[in-house]
Amino acid sequence: MGLIANVEKKKKAVRKLEKKEIPKVDSNVKQASLDKFKKREDEILKKVEERVKLPKVESKEKSEVSPKVEELKKKDEAKLKDVEEKVADVVEAVKENGNKVKKKVKKAEGGSLFADIKKEVMSKLTYSDTPKPIKKEAFSLADIKKSVQAELAGGSSRNKVEAEDRVQTGIPGLDSLMAGGFLKKSMVLVGGGAGSGKTIFSMQFLVNGINENDETGIYITFEQEESQILRDFKSFNWELQEKIDKGKLVILTYTPEQVERFLESGGGIVRDIIDKIGARRIVIDSLTAFVLLYPTEIEKRRAVFKLYRTMEKWGCTTMMISEQEPDPKRHKSTVVEFQADAVLLLYNQRTGDVRERSMEIFKMRASEHAQKIFPMKIDRVGITIYPEATVF
């Protein structure tokens, strides 16, 4: 009897559930959230437009050039042609005479072969009243030697120099350690543990671009609001608020809910701001916060690859911040590092009862760079690297 009563009880419960109405999810909620996000994007763009007043460039149909300037230009062109012929003659002589002349080329730094050419070049480039005078140092003995050796090797040193168009960080002591700076339009990963100086490093990269090269920048954060970022950097003499007011710097904040839309649209508002202010440098803070939004390892990798493809389309030099192992002896490369063009690692190691900051250029494509960990200091001016010092 107890078994029958149990069955009846369960049937009764099922009938009760079937009659109960399940509330429907309002489809307008999602749309309202998207509309709110779109409205926020429009407000940011409007502010940027108000701050930035780009000067109109009036094209001149025909520039006025005096006959005297034209005459001087023609003379300079003739001199340059004469120089090129002389270098070509030297190359031919080396090829014809083989090892005997090649030895002369190797010793040419103090020999007569190139010294005579140098003397001839300098004697011909004497004009100083042309609008853009020819730089004599461009035809130095060392450059002529490089040109000849490049021809003998079947390559061109000039093409190599042009390919290495670089973006200077402006961080004292750093650019000289990596052939003058990052490659233009490259993706740079700055990694390190907590308190290593990653955020300061990346903001200093933007500030120096504005102050030293008049290159506007965008700071994209997945973690903090603009007010928090300005508060954190208040002790530095970088005048971030003034740069924002002048349209030189834009800080964008994306919440976790907005990140997917950010990727789907290819970073739509970022593209618009790049066009509005002519941005050349971008910082993403941080890649770690970004990947935490995705539950599985496969989803994380897909999202990172999608982000990389999006950044490539922006055509800017982009710096990404990432949490890394704080101990250099235990560092392991990640998929994110393999995708990046350059990887810089910052450390804040404990030695005895003190901590010492340091920096390492872990990777840099198509560039010669220092293979050493260098001491680093942070003060109210920013970060300074000490190339000649040693980490204790």
Commentary on this structure:
- This protein folds into two domains: 68-162, no CATH class; 166-385, P-loop containing nucleotide triphosphate hydrolases (Rossmann fold, 3-Layer(aba) Sandwich).
- The protein is globular and about 110 Å long.
- Mean pLDDT is 75; it is low at 54-65, 104-111, 124-139 and 151-163.
- The chain has 392 residues and is of the alpha/beta class.
- The chain has helices at 2-19, 27-51, 67-97, 99-106, 112-124, 141-152, 157-163, 198-213, 226-232, 240-245, 256-264, 268-277, 287-291, 297-314, 335-339; strands spanning 166-167, 182-183, 187-192, 217-221, 249-253, 281-285, 317-323, 342-351, 354-364, 373-379, 382-385.
Summed up, the helix count is 15
The main pleated sheet reads as: 9 strands, mixed
Mean pLDDT: 75
Q: How many strand segments?
A: 11
CATH architecture of the largest domain: 3-Layer(aba) Sandwich
The CATH superfamily of the largest domain appears as: P-loop containing nucleotide triphosphate hydrolases
- Helicity, as a percent range: 40-55%
The gross shape turns out to be globular
Q: Detail the poorly predicted runs.
A: 54-65, 104-111, 124-139, 151-163
How many domains, in number, for the residues? 2
C-alpha Rg, in Å?
Answer: 30 Å
For the largest sheet, list the strands in their spatial order.
5-4-6-7-3-8-9-10-11
